[in-house]
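Example (one chain per record):
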Amino acid sequence: MRSRPCLPTLLLPAPLLRIGLTVATILSAAALPAQAQQPAGTFPTRPITLIMPFPAGGPSDALGRAVGAKMASTLGVPVVVENVGGVGGSVGLQKLARAPADGYTIGFGTIGTHAANMILYRKPMYDAVNDHVPLGLVGSAPLLLLVKKDLPVADFPQFVAHLKTHKATMSYGSAGVGSIAHLACLMMLSELDIDVMHVPYKGVAPAMTGLMGGETDFMCDQTTTALAQLEGGRIKAVATLTRDPVIGLPKVAPAQASGLVKLDVRSWNGLFAPRGTPPAIVTALNGAILKALADPDLTRQMGAVGVTFPDPATNTPANLAEVVRTEIARLRPILLAKNVHID
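Predicted structure:
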């Protein structure tokens, strides 16, 4: 794959900044009163650490903190987020794998950390299938195909025609090799059987800045960071990369409607515990996740940036384990065929 370096600039969507400010308030208000409700001698009896394998301030961090705050209300102890970034999330999730299997350390995972990293890295720092115990999904966001505002296309068929004609000079940006923005575009281009220059940035904010500034031509990004820029008219959405239309963007048709029948990409997120965590504790943590996701304030807060929550009837540890296995199997042939790897 060809790539060229770009100088990142910082840009954070306003909805995410608002979420970051409100999460701290929720956590301090919810966790302390709940401690008084905790029965003695039962799990948990002390604070739980939630390892966030990404820097503070991004969409994953905002979601993790919001869910953790609601879980604290149910569990009766604080859920303290610890940001341990580095190596595409690997540093934090290696720490999770090495933590005591007692339920007091849990971790946040994504399609990147628990599927792509197992293929991208020749020597992964942890085994997503065997080193972590799934607890439950905590939300997903649909992916959009975004283009710079002056690209002369209005829908997906026009984009494909333009791409085929100008592929030698076009490029797409992402938050880095293995990020959901990179994976989504790779899946789309693989089905189109087209190779285009990839420009990896150091994060989603500089990648979005690059698209708005015309450094790249298109980008595949989740709604959590795209909606604010779409509303401001700084970029255009020409397709959804999920099977269904996106709420709030009824005029943006799925790419599947134009023939990409296999394409269905979502930025999913889940919580995990170290291998060997007792089943009773896994059940308790899953129950706290389900109760957190049923909170109407959390649903409204995350729905504002396009995050949806899974069906509680199927949101089990076993279901998340199957999601991880399925995504690894789906991504492996694409990444190997494109020779995308990180030493």
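Caption: The two ends are 15 Å apart (CA to CA).
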